[in-house]
Design goal:
heterodimer, A: 238 residues, mainly alpha, 76% helix, flat, B: 304 residues, two-stranded antiparallel sheet, 2% strand, globular
């Protein structure tokens, strides 16, 4: 599954993996702003950004082709608008839309592929994002695939019984059956949430998770951040 | 519609990031009053439910199907502040882990779906959900409908303001598709709420009805019309202006008063985009101030 692959990538050991999450998040912001605020995306600048990101994946020992394919998740949206721009007689704009959105997605993927989510969220907390919101995000991520697996097994069970079949029952009946399935999924999720809440309380949960080691922003992180920012600014000027 | 990075102009994404940050902060503060930190798992699992709900397809005929978006449903179950917080968390996870929506564009996506979308979904329920059974059904349907429609229209407006090419036929087809999706969301939300209430009536909140209905309706209508209006009115003169042009009056017309926001622009600002945005916000603020003033005056009269 998508998350399992990214989690495996984020557990690696490399120079990028060892950098503090705040340094990587700030470097990502510099890069995204440099890409977004450029007046266009000259082929030279786009190629250099692409090369830097590919080198980043290679240095982090993350499969480059796999990463390039995952970042392509942004392309259906981009290509649709690019096609409209091209048909409207603005092919340069079409290329900019596709290029900027793909490079930005690749940059975000490099961050999450080299930083485990709990560390990343702790990093965001360090730069002022409300802890309450980050905790909700962490729980969404933790239970996303549990509930999704439940939904998938419910869909399979319903299909075996002909519940979501393409023929047979009327549309309205099938619509109501889907609504019922969703309501049952909701009730199960709600029940699971209450059980999780009780079991976490019984284990002494105080409203936040603890990392095994507190993050430390060292000289290597400063060097990484400042050099990333400098590279982003220089490439933007190409 | 999750907007990726690279689509919005700097002014648009930066302004919406600045707007979304305090809005989310306010939603977090209001949520913490109702849900203590120990109940965070409930909010997280409800967010995971909205993700997973996309796997259950609803048949809509001619071989196609749709799925729940969930902003309005979350608001009916958790209240609007908690629903906004959960939707914000979902959007952040989608942007980070699934490359669905951008990081710089996160403010825009949060504004569209987690703030305005959730509020637009909650408002009909808040206003009419406490009425009779039929009024409640209509309110629940309307909540799902407006939630999706307003979010999608706002995204379209932001793309248009950013200079993404949007020929009139494409904009028209997009609005048509948004209306169909919004109708579907309304129908799914209503069907799921009815099924939920069969399982446990306590899942869905009781709508209390608003104390300032008039102001809320005017505000909601103003936001909605502003969203739709920007698409159509930005490049074309309005009906009266067109009539004046056709009749040849416009060349002879003179202003009797100096208007501070002539042509809906704040002339004292340098950037064209800032001029339009400042004038729009100032206009909306004036309308709100007038509504609040009128409401207070009416309330004083009533109590006198």
């Amino acid at each position: 599954m998508h998350h399992a692959v990214i989690e495996r990538w984020s557990q690696g050991q490399s120079f990028l993996h060892r950098r503090d999450a705040r340094a990587k998040a700030a470097a990502l912001l510099f890069l995204l702003i440099a890409i977004a605020t450029g007046p266009g995306l000259p082929a030279a600048a786009g190629s250099v950004y692409f090369a830097i990101l590919v080198l980043g994946f290679a240095a982090a020992r993350v499969p480059v082709l796999g990463a390039l394919a995952r970042a392509a998740a942004v392309l259906p949206f981009s290509l649709a608008f690019a096609a409209i721009a091209a048909v409207s007689g603005d092919p340069a704009r079409a290329a900019i839309l596709v290029g900027k959105s793909y490079l930005s997605a690749l940059a975000v993927l490099l961050l999450v592929a080299t930083t485990p989510l709990p560390k990343l969220l702790r990093g965001f907390e360090g730069i002022g994002v409300p802890r309450f919101l980050l905790m909700v995000g962490q729980f969404v991520y933790r239970y996303l695939f549990v509930i999704a697996a439940q939904a998938a097994s419910m869909r399979l069970a319903a299909s075996c019984r002909g519940g979501f079949g393409k023929s047979g029952s009327a549309h309205e009946t099938r619509f109501r059956a889907a609504a019922g399935a969703l309501a049952v999924l909701f009730a199960r999720s709600y029940g699971a949430a209450e059980n999780i809440h009780r079991s976490m309380l019984s284990r002494g949960f105080e409203g936040h998770f603890h990392l095994l080691r507190n993050p430390r922003f060292g000289p290597a992180d400063w060097t990484f951040l400042l050099s990333s920012a400098a590279v982003a600014v220089v490439v933007r000027g190409i | 519609m999750h907007i990726p990075d690279g689509f919005l102009s700097t002014q648009v994404w930066a302004a919406l990031d600045v707007l979304a940050a305090p809005a989310v902060g306010l939603a977090v503060r209001k949520t913490r009053r109702e849900f203590d930190e120990g109940r965070i798992p409930l909010l997280g699992v409800m967010g995971a439910f909205v993700f997973a709900a996309q796997m259950i397809n609803f048949p809509v005929g001619i071989g196609t199907s749709g799925h729940l978006v969930g902003g309005a449903l979350l608001a009916y179950v958790l209240g609007w502040p908690a629903a906004s917080v959960v939707m914000t968390a979902i959007l952040a996870i989608q942007a980070l882990v699934f490359q669905d929506g951008g990081i710089l564009a996160l403010g825009a996506n949060i504004t569209n779906m987690a703030i305005v979308g959730v509020l637009a979904g909650y408002l009909p329920f808040h206003l009419w959900g406490g009425g009779g059974a039929t009024a409640r059904k209509i309110a629940i349907f309307a909540g799902g409908f407006t939630s999706v429609l307003v979010s999608a229209l706002l995204a379209l407006v932001q793309l248009g303001l950013s200079g993404v090419p949007m020929p009139a036929p494409v904009a028209g087809i997009s609005v048509g598709l948004f209306v169909v999706s919004a109708l579907l969301e309304g129908a799914i939300t209503l069907a799921v709420v009815q099924a939920l209430e069969t399982i446990n009536p306590g899942f869905v909140r009781t709508a209390r009805g608003s104390h300032s209905r008039g102001a809320a309706i005017v505000l909601a209508t103003a936001v909605f019309l502003a969203a739709v209006g920007v698409i159509f009115a930005s490049t074309h003169p309005d009906g009266l202006e067109q009539l004046a042009i056709n009749a040849g009056i416009s060349q002879r017309a003179t202003n009797l008063f100096a208007t501070p926001f002539a042509d809906y622009e704040a002339g004292f600002l340098q950037s064209a985009w800032l001029r339009k945005a400042a004038a729009g916000l100032a206009g909306l603020a004036l309308v709100c101030a007038a509504c609040i003033g009128f409401g207070r005056f009416a309330a004083r009269k009533r109590s006198a």
